[in-house]
Design brief:
Layout: H1 3-14, E1 24-26, H2 28-36, E2 42-47, H3 52-67, E3 76-81, H4 86-91, E4 99-103, E5 111-112, H5 119-130, E6 145-146, H6 149-155, E7 161-167, H7 172-187, E8 194-200, H8 207-212, E9 220-224, E10 232-233, H9 240-251, H10 269-277, H11 283-294, H12 302-314, H13 318-332, H14 337-362
Parallel strand pairs: 1-3, 2-3, 6-8, 7-8
Antiparallel strand pairs: 2-4, 4-5, 7-9, 9-10
Helix pairs in contact: 10-11, 10-14, 11-12, 12-14, 13-14
Length: 363
């Protein structure tokens, strides 16, 4: 890089032209002043623009700098384009990207950072080194159940379908899975018979379980159906949609992305078949047919089919009126998730009667 280019870039950094970023850009002209001789510690990332891992780290590193911006008089969060500034990289023994080093601000002997590349790990490292207190937003309670050697044995083989991820604290892919796993757990939070869980395969209280399950790589995801301790390896995609489709197929649930219920929720095929075959002349006997078919069905919504058929036999406008009422309640909002599920399921059942009602009107 020419002396003129260095001068321009140095001025660019010092004047704060790149105001959108809280990460300091370092070059040979300002490196010693900012990092070695300031008396202020600094975390420095040596990166290359073409490096994929560097690109993944960039938004996390930027967020770290933004969170520590209030303490910029006590610590610097900086970066060096070591591809452009090869001499700086060579000076500190950088031979891979990204490389993060901690400088105490007093000498040129940095400490290599070897922790996780997630925000929490980086933040905890800086806090431990400086004593700076960062206000953390309270996190909502997790819907993911953390299983130990004891609780794993209690949950697996019981009355729940369980999808469990075996993870390790240092595993990058596990960290990428974490927000998706939490979202899926939230999607199924209202399903009492489904459990989304995780096992820390390296924790003292749960590593025996990981060993018993033959876990040798992370994350490993296994599915246990109700009443079974025999796992099925999950080998599908790691997206919210993929996990939901898998669980719906295995557990017989009807969740959609976002946690809502699909159009099949609450409906009963055996009763829908009867409803679909009814003509206008059969409406008077529909209730009896539904009651007969519902005998022995272990489904709480069978009674609702009977109720609707009873109402419809004497009130042709019942389905439309009731469907409008239920959909209005859902749209209004402010209901508990369980109540929304119930109203959605009832609405789905009412829609099954719509064809029958329209047929009667045509007659």
């Amino acid at each position: 890089m020419s002396p003129l280019s260095h001068l321009f870039l140095s001025a660019f950094v010092i004047l704060g032209t790149n105001a959108a970023s809280s990460v300091l850009d370092l070059i040979p002209d300002n490196f010693d002043a900012v990092v070695l001789n300031s008396g202020k510690p600094a975390l420095v990332e040596f990166f290359a623009p073409w490096c994929g891992h560097c690109k993944s780290l960039a938004p996390v590193y930027e967020e770290l700098a933004a969170k520590l911006d209030f303490a910029k008089d006590k610590v610097s969060i900086a970066k060096v384009d070591a591809d452009a500034e090869k001499d700086l990289g060579k000076r500190f023994g950088v031979n891979g990207y990204p490389t993060l080093k901690w400088f105490d601000g007093k000498n040129d002997k940095p400490e290599d950072y070897s922790g996780g590349r997630d925000l929490e790990s980086l933040q905890d490292f800086v806090v431990a080194k400086t004593g700076i207190k960062i206000k953390k937003k309270a996190s909502p309670p997790s819907s993911v159940e953390t299983l130990t050697d004891v609780s794993f044995k209690a949950e697996i083989g019981g009355d729940k379908d369980v999808l469990v991820a075996f993870t390790a604290p240092w595993c990058g892919h596990c960290k990428s899975l974490t927000p998706i796993w939490e979202t899926v757990a939230n999607d199924f939070a209202a399903e009492p018979s489904v459990l989304i869980a995780k096992v820390d395969a390296e924790a003292e209280e749960s590593k025996a379980t990981a060993k018993e399950q033959g876990v040798s790589s992370y994350p490993t995801i296994k599915y246990f159906s109700k009443g079974s301790t025999t796992p099925e390896a999950y080998e599908g995609g790691r997206t919210e949609q993929a996990f939901i489709e898998f669980i719906n197929k295995k557990a017989g649930t009807h969740r959609m992305v976002g946690g809502g219920l699909d159009a099949k929720a609450g409906t009963i095929d055996a009763l829908d078949t009867i409803v679909g075959k009814v003509t206008g002349d059969d409406l008077a006997t529909l209730s009896e047919k539904i009651k007969e078919a519902a005998k022995g069905l272990q489904n709480k919504y069978a009674e609702y089919y009977i109720k609707v058929s009873d109402k419809l036999s004497t009130n042709n406008g019942y389905v439309d009126k009731e469907l409008t009422r239920l959909e209005g309640l859902i749209k209004k909002g402010g209901l508990a998730p369980e109540k929304v599920d119930d109203l959605t399921s009832r609405s789905n059942i009412l829609k099954k009667f719509k064809g029958e009602e329209l047929l009667k009107e045509e007659l």
